[in-house]
Design a protein that fits this description.
heterodimer, A: 199 residues, mainly alpha, Butyryl-CoA Dehydrogenase, subunit A, domain 3, 0% strand, B: 120 residues, 5 helices
Chain lengths: 199, 120
């Protein structure tokens, strides 16, 4: 999970130090790029990995998201938007693009291959939970998948999600609720596989 | 599209799954990824703008407007020459002035020294 310091920096009230670094980068400051990369890449990678359950794909998304950050730097206007908000949006969009492509592939076809050993149950209940959730998210409409992941995987508040998705807080609540119901329905048949009891 | 409302147990299972995934350790960015991102940043880094030229002092601007030090030297030479010609004009200058402007003469336009015969 994200550190408390990074979470605090993402609140709308805190000064956007990332924005100041981005402006410095746009002015040719090479060290600002390194600082931004060290600060932002772990969070972008984590977000992408939670959505995609595939580290190689998550790394590609992280690189693409950071590339878009470098490209937009000269046009960045400090105070109009927060870098963290912008980056959450870009990462979520890149991930849902990839999830959408997975919809054309049957879920069984992309399930993790499991070897025939005693650790099969552990594999299913460990890594496969992440994969099962990613597969289920892929079956949702993009906006629902984004709202659910930002709320329940990234732990963001509804106002922050509203800013990221450029919608009202009420719309976030609606998307999240519908998304969760849809996810529960998709995953209902996989409880045993996921290691959760009915109790 | 109609959707079967999930049971409480199914929603609880989903919450547990979401909490599990959210609480899982974050992946550590590989050195290769960081190197790629840094290379992208360097390739896209805008060229630093040239520092603004320091404002020049007023008299320097004035001198530059005139044409700089060579022009100022020429003006100084012309000033000295003019002063010398004024203080000690060569005879050729007097003669040339006389030819151009003529001799200095006093002219009594009325032809009278005491037109109203006030002097007695």
């Amino acid at each position: 999970m994200m550190s408390a310091q990074i979470k605090a920096d993402e609140t709308q009230e805190a000064p956007d130090t990332d924005g100041a670094l981005l402006v410095a980068y746009a002015n040719g400051d090479a060290t600002a790029a390194r600082d931004l990369m060290i600060r932002l890449t772990p969070r972008v990678l984590a977000q992408a990995n939670r959505l995609l359950a595939d580290q190689a794909e998550a790394e590609d998304v992280a690189q693409e998201a950071m590339m878009r950050l470098w490209k937009i730097a000269p046009e960045w206007r400090q105070g109009e938007a927060r870098v963290s908000t912008w980056l959450y949006r870009v990462t979520a969009n890149l991930c849902t693009d990839r999830l959408r492509k997975r919809r054309t592939v049957p879920l069984d076809a992309v399930a993790e291959p499991l070897d025939d050993t005693d650790s099969v149950a552990d594999q299913i209940q460990g890594r496969s939970r992440l994969k099962a959730l990613a597969d289920a998210l892929a079956s949702l409409p993009d906006r629902q998948a984004q709202a659910v992941s930002l709320r329940h995987l990234e732990g963001l508040s509804n106002p922050d999600i509203a800013a990221i998705m450029d919608i009202s807080t009420e719309a976030v609540e609606s998307l999240t609720a519908r998304g969760k119901r849809a996810l529960a329905a998709v995953l209902a048949g996989r409880k045993a596989e996921l290691g959760y009891d009915d109790g | 599209m109609t959707m079967v409302e999930p049971t409480k147990a199914e929603m609880d299972a989903l919450d547990a799954l979401l909490a599990d995934v959210a609480g899982a350790p974050d992946p550590v960015p590989s050195d290769d990824l960081m190197a790629r991102i840094l290379a992208d940043a360097e390739a896209s880094r805008p060229v630093p703008a040239a520092p603004p030229e320091a404002p020049r002092l007023g008299w320097r601007n004035w001198l530059a407007t005139l044409g700089g030090w060579p022009v100022l030297g020429g003006m100084a030479m012309a000033g000295v020459a003019g002063l010398w010609l004024g203080v000690a004009p060569p005879a050729a200058v007097d003669q040339m002035v006389a030819e151009m402007l003529g001799e200095t003469v006093s002219v009594d336009l009325l032809g009278l020294t005491d037109p109203f015969e006030l002097e007695g």
